[in-house]
Amino acid sequence: MLDKTGIAKRIAQEVKDGYYVNLGIGIPTLVANYVREDIEVEFQSENGVLGMGPFPFDGEEDADIINAGKQTITTLPGASFFDSATSFGMIRGKHVDLTILGAMEVAENGDIANWKIPGKMVKGMGGAMDLVASAENIIVAMMHTNKAGDSKLLKRCSLPLTGVGCVKKIVTNLAVLEVTANGFKLLERAPGISVDAIKNATEGILIVEGEIPEMKV
Which end of the chain is more exposed for a tag (fewer CB within 10 A), N or C? Predict the structure, then answer.
């Protein structure tokens, strides 16, 4: 089973040379730490940063340089800062090659819910709705089940939707899955995790074809 760092390491393998990548709040912010050093990638944050680097070492933080989750970050040579209007112009103009988001629920048809739990106070929906409406390649980083052990990969989302039919791939602590027209297709399983364990943790349709390899992280 993977921890949050393991999920980020696996997703980092999906990042290709020359990509412009938006990182959402939570597990996605860790991805920048694990991208291969032999490729060039531009990480974008919706609060107005292009060229984010890894998290800073203790004692080297600059409180004025943060990501969308208000975490201190580093910037790479050539990085730029701009207003939110410019940032969302990049997003809505489809200039981002890959969007990596967290989620509370994902449905078997690619619907995503990641902004609100009814009855709980939230500051707002943030930029997630713009991202999922504009991005053509969306990977979700999430835990496979909630704290009660209930599946978060569902037939239909129960929480308010952020986007409809938009998620392409999901990396959880148990598995890598592709969203297809027929349900979740199991691509890889976490080290030490059986296919049956993944089936038991998935409410939505799970497609298993042939031998499922273990993730390499």
Answer: N
pTM above 0.85, yes or no: yes
Sign of CA dihedral 66, 99, 44, 127: negative
- Residues 25-51 have pLDDT tens digits of 889 989 988 999 899 999 999 889 999
Q: Rounded CA gap, 91 and 85, in Å?
A: 10
**What's the rounded Cα separation, in Å, for the pair 86 and 48?**
7
Query: Is there a contact between 162 and 113 (Cβ–Cβ < 8 Å)?
Result: yes
Which SS3 state, helix, strand or coil, does residue 44 take? strand
Structure token pair of residue 141 = 């980083």
167, 152 Cβ separation under 8 angstroms: no
Adjacency order of strands within the sheet including 49-52: 75-81, 49-52, 42-45, 20-23, 98-102, 138-141, 169-171, 175-180, 183-189, 206-207
What's the rounded Cα separation, in Å, for the pair 161 and 109?
Answer: 12
- Examine the residue annotation and report whether 60 is marked as an active-site residue of this protein: no
Reply yes or no on whether the pLDDT at 189 is more than 70.
yes
Each residue's pLDDT tens digit, 168-181: 999 999 999 999 99
Work out the number of other CB atoms within 10 angstroms of the CB of residue 14: 18
Buried b (16+ CB within 10 A) or exposed e, 111-150: bbbbbbeeeeeeeeebbbebbbebbeebbbbbbbbeeeee
Of these residues, 37, 42, 46, 60, which one is catalytic?
A: 46
Write out the two tokens for 173: 């602590």
